[in-house]
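JOB MANIFEST
job_type = single_chain_structure
chain_count = 1
residues = 563
[input]
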Amino acid sequence: MLPSNTIRSYVCLCSRCSKLTHVFNGIQVPGLQVSPVVHQSHQLNDQRLRILESLDNFLDDSVSDKSGLSNPSTEENDSNSLLGTQPDLREPLESSPTSRMGVQLEIQTDDVLDPDLEITTFDPSHFMQHTLNGENPSVIHACLIASCMSIFDHTSLYNSSWLLQAQRNSLEIHIKSSESSLEGLLQPLDYTSQLALQRLPKKIQTVMRWLNIEPSLDYYTCCPDCFALYPLEHTSPVCSHLDDQVPGSLDLLYQNNQPELSIKTTGPPQHGSKRRIRKHSSHGTREEPGEEIGVSMANAQLGEDTSSGDDQFDPLDNQFYGEMEITFVKSFCRMGNLAALLRDETKLPESLRPYASQLHSIFEPQDFQPKSSDIYNSQPLDDDVLDQLVLRLNATQANDWQWKSSSTWCRMSAEDRIKYSPVSSQAHFKTGVKHNNVHYQTHKKSPKNTVVHVVSQTNGATLFGKITKIFSHRRIPGHENSPVDETWLLVRYYKPLSAGMPNPFSRVGEPDLQAHLRLENWSRPYLTRLSEVVASCAWIIYEKGEIHYLLDKKSIALVSLHR
């Protein structure tokens, strides 16, 4: 039982402590484990040293400036500053092919056309080459936040634009507070700072075009019966795809000696054609169809007009263009494009990469990682558990190494130590862990989340048991490799029924119910990998003779929640 007044500690990585090491789970790691007060004092001392160092560099630079020499570090800082010379995001200036300004959202005219397939192949290289390197990190971060809220959180255009304006105000306050006194916050910005803030777009549509996440769609008219595709500018009022292939169908359709539908006049249906016909911005200027025999495809899908007194009704006059489907496709494409941009940190400025994980956590939530740790949670493993750990690691050749317990490894000769890696007897114990979006906890913490369904990696056996302990263990394979952290469980498994005991669940098809009956007799704790856990279980306990009069032992019925 941990004491109520637990002591929190921080791993200090200041300029001095980073050169030292401390013991974590029996392994020497960089940094020094200190109290929160000491950690704060070390950070303040490092900040004071950096300010003094920058002041000394500033004095040296002023001397060299007087002598006519330029300082390259100052020029580099100016280029990364919010007040540096950056192009206006609202003006389509010419730039390199990898810049946002060089990306053309329109379909290029030099698309490759395969004469054999008659299908236009688009070149997506401008999407792959698009990068945000060289742009202002403050402006990029504000635009990424607004685009994430607009796309993943479905924020309206008005609210997204409001968020851009709010971030513009935050940047303005930051500039005033960093360059002026407290009274200077009430003064307007100078002209150069105002120019810098004007680089931030005012509308979210501009941000999407700048980030190159806006998709380019092709539009076709689809027959609701046979799903034939027609270009918008060559769509016939009547689908002739099936009529041309069924003998005699045209004679039944045109009974009033009307001229038959000719392929030369209407154009052949182009199934799956990728040829660029028209753009979405102009799809609302559709021509009025002429009076033709047959039923239009729009009427075939929408049905006849049943309203009274409205003889001018025509579905084509009511913007029958699949606006809902277009909205869905655009949203899905924007999500994929923005997620790919955030996952590839090489496309972001180096100063913005440490914050990329926080940005894409909006669609990939991350578990909370505390900066401090409880020093009482690091405890030694029992001898039986340590022996099981060594056996499990050697059975699977973990990390392509042979393992020995740390006490055994220390007693070995120098020649034999090279062949093995030590297994530390220290571990970091927890009360719960998350695996495959399911929370598992120890029996002492929460009995309802402790019964698990396990499939052994050794022999593939199906096991059921309850978790008694959860701990994370760190090991170092070899001497030059990086540490490996792995979570382990101590599970007491329920014993299966012997051959002579009655089992009513054996008559129930397991694929349907997946119910298993076990005796409520626990085995000793066995070490189990977290990856071996399949799912949690629902269970019910039966007393002696309750489920069957011949079963004179207490039993438990389990149903795996894995689907």
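[summary]
The longest strand covers residues 462-475.
The mean pLDDT is 72.
exit_status = 0
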